Amino acid sequence: PPPSEDAVAKALHDVFGFSGFRGVQDQVVDRVLHGRSTLAVMPTGAGKSLTYQLPAVLLEGTCVVVSPLIALMHDQLRSARANGIRAATLTSADADRGQTMDAFRAGHLDLLYIAPERASQPYFRDLLQSARVGLFAIDEAHCVSEWGHDFRPDYRLLRPLLDAFPQVPRLALTATADHHTRADILAQLGIPEEGLIVAGFDRPNIRYTIRPRENVGRQIKAVVDENPGPGIVYAPTRARVEQLAETLASATGRRVLPYHAGLDPEVRARNQAAFVASEDMVMVATVAFGMGIDKPDVRFVAHAGIPKSIEAYYQETGRAGRDGDPSVAVMFWGADDFARARQRLSEIEPGRQQSERQRLDALAGLVETAGCRRAVLLRHFGEQPAETCGNCDNCLNPVGVVDVTDLARKLLSA
Ligand code: ADP
Ligand code: MG
């Protein structure tokens, strides 16, 4: 029988230190604990990990987690172990594989993280057969779909393995909102349609602001000055990252570090670790920074230029305020950003031009709207939001009222 509600609440509190579930977490956990295969679509930061880690603690047998990147696995491993969960990874990078397999067979593991390519190795199926598996969790499940933005052929190898354990429930997890991809994940992983749980995409604690770019160094300095907590500044190129990091370091007096793919891997890792540990640092980065980084208290995300798409904007700004506290997302855009992006359109393969143009048009719609930013974002993800959110620049300062409000503020503070 599945664990009682009390046992679930107790584990949530004692193991993870949380006072309650967020959003659809309870629905997902409840299905999983009842042995029902599930696809959970939850935005970045919504807390997908908990939906398999909690069952992993409560269910008999080990939860085998498929994850696409070794770096992501190790982050997860660290945080699981910090909560006292018995977790291990089984990758080519692990020297202690023999020990891990012994612990797995002996039933001493709550969580076992593997890369998808393990799934096709015959010895691995034998290993699973000689142990007790309580749950399969497939993280970043959109990787199984060619519709997704990150198709990985290795994910296609999972199905035969899953099918060899028909009594073990499957929990697929993704932040991808797209309809085709969801349907494809269900089909590819053999999860029934009724197993789909989609969380709302709204992040009400994030205040969205989108402004034309004037002097971007000065504009971003103002954002940094107004927000003393940790923040990320996204810049379009490595050179701009270096430049902005320098400007901000001298202009704000804050600790500012750069992050981009051109840096030494060691420097990158060091800068990332410093950021995660910091309560006031600013990371100036290209979009290479952010994936899989678990830092709940990021207070602002600033864009020095336009992101690639609304999806990218949502994902990048979504790194702010995972703890639910008020946070800001500020984008500074220039007409030249769009001109350059359109220029690049003509350079990509003809087959993809139309969809890329649509993505760019959708982004322009977000930038140019005089209405609620959040409403545009949520409609893009298929939701039917309210007309106004009260927590974006356009709702707080409706067009035409801007000057008056500013004037009133000046008069009041004079
Ligand atoms: P995702 O994988 O969906 O992007 P994570 O699993 O990394 O999200 O969780 C994001 C953050 O939310 C983490 O810092 C996690 O500790 C926190 N979190 C998850 N569930 C809860 C909860 N029920 N209450 C409070 N914080 C939570
Ligand atoms: Mg995750």
Description:
- With 414 residues, the chain is an alpha/beta fold.
- It has 17 helices and 13 strands.
- It has helices at residues 5-16, 25-33, 48-58, 70-82, 97-105, 122-129, 158-163, 179-189, 216-226, 238-252, 265-277, 310-317, 335-345, 350-368, 373-380, 393-396, 402-413; strands spanning 38-41, 62-66, 87-90, 111-114, 133-138, 170-174, 196-198, 206-212, 231-234, 256-259, 282-285, 300-303, 327-333.
- It has a seven-stranded parallel sheet, with helices on both faces. A six-stranded parallel sheet has the order 8-13-12-9-11-10, sandwiched between helices.
- The longest helix is centred in the C-terminal third of the chain and has 19 residues, at 350-368.
- It is globular.
- The N and C termini lie far apart (68 Å).
- 38% of the residues are buried.
- The mean pLDDT is 92.
- The structure holds adenosine-5'-diphosphate and magnesium ion.
- Adenosine-5'-diphosphate is lined by residues 18, 21-22, 25, 42, 44-50, 294, 296, 322.
